[in-house]
Amino acid sequence: MAAAAAVVAGVLVVTDDDKGSRGGSSDDVVQGPPGAPGSGGSDGSGEPDRSGGSQGPGNLVTPAHSSGPGGTTVVIGEAGAKHTLDVYEDLRCPPCASFDQAVGPTIAKDIKAGTYKVSFHFAAILDKNMGGSGSANALSALGAALDVSPDTFLDYKAALMSSKNHPEESEDSYADDDQLLTVSQEVYALKTNASFREALREGTYDPWAKKMIADFDASGVSGTPTVKLDGSQLTGSGGSTPATAAEFTDAVDKQLKG
After folding, report:
1. Among 257, 141, 145, 156, which residue's Cα sits nearest to residue 209?
2. pLDDT tens-digit series, residues 159-184
3. At a CB cut-off of 8 Å and minimum separation 6, what does 210 contact?
4. Domain 82-232 is in which class?
5. Is the dihedral of CA 173, 176, 181, 182 positive or negative?
6. How many CB atoms lie within 10 A of CB 45?
7. Is 136 strand, coil or helix?
8. Is-contact 15 246, C-beta < 8 A?
9. What pTM does this model have?
């Protein structure tokens, strides 16, 4: 069935009568960062496979600091935090960028304070419904940043979503590796990081990005940005996703007190 994307009340919404179908499986995936013993990304020499050939589920490379089946669980924060914030975004989505710009610093502060840990989920709604590959390509690059450190992941994500760098909805600039590398120069840990650059250029985390996107498609969440605290969706004025730091903090406080 045909699919369509629309921005409604600051939320990118996907309508897809066939979104339940997905190719591939998360079975037979080997966990571990690139080059780790037994990693699906190793060619047997202990080095990551950079051949650039087609990668199936059996040789999936998962970033360090990811976990779960297929390495698609990305949780950042104190392990002992009693609460979990789930954040659903599309890296190419303008409403998601606006949300990140307004609320991202508050989420980063709450992570450090131990208010909650954050589980990140990523879609490719715009790739699927407008054409292009910027959502998936940026997610692959973000996986390379996660492999460096959780803080690097957060910093690079913020840079990708910033008003300075984020493209308009009609543009697919994140499909260009050169643009992703240019943005990475704003992140101290990535400025001279050869491993990050190689992983981005070689598409090391492309299969991982596809699995992340498949997990989003199976999640039942149809719009981005969406935020849930302990499984309950957070809303601001008008019942939409909180659009400001004040709305977000108020929604979190109400949920925690309730």
Report:
1. 141
2. 999 999 999 988 999 999 999 999 99
3. 24, 136
4. alpha beta
5. negative
6. 8
7. helix
8. no
9. 0.80
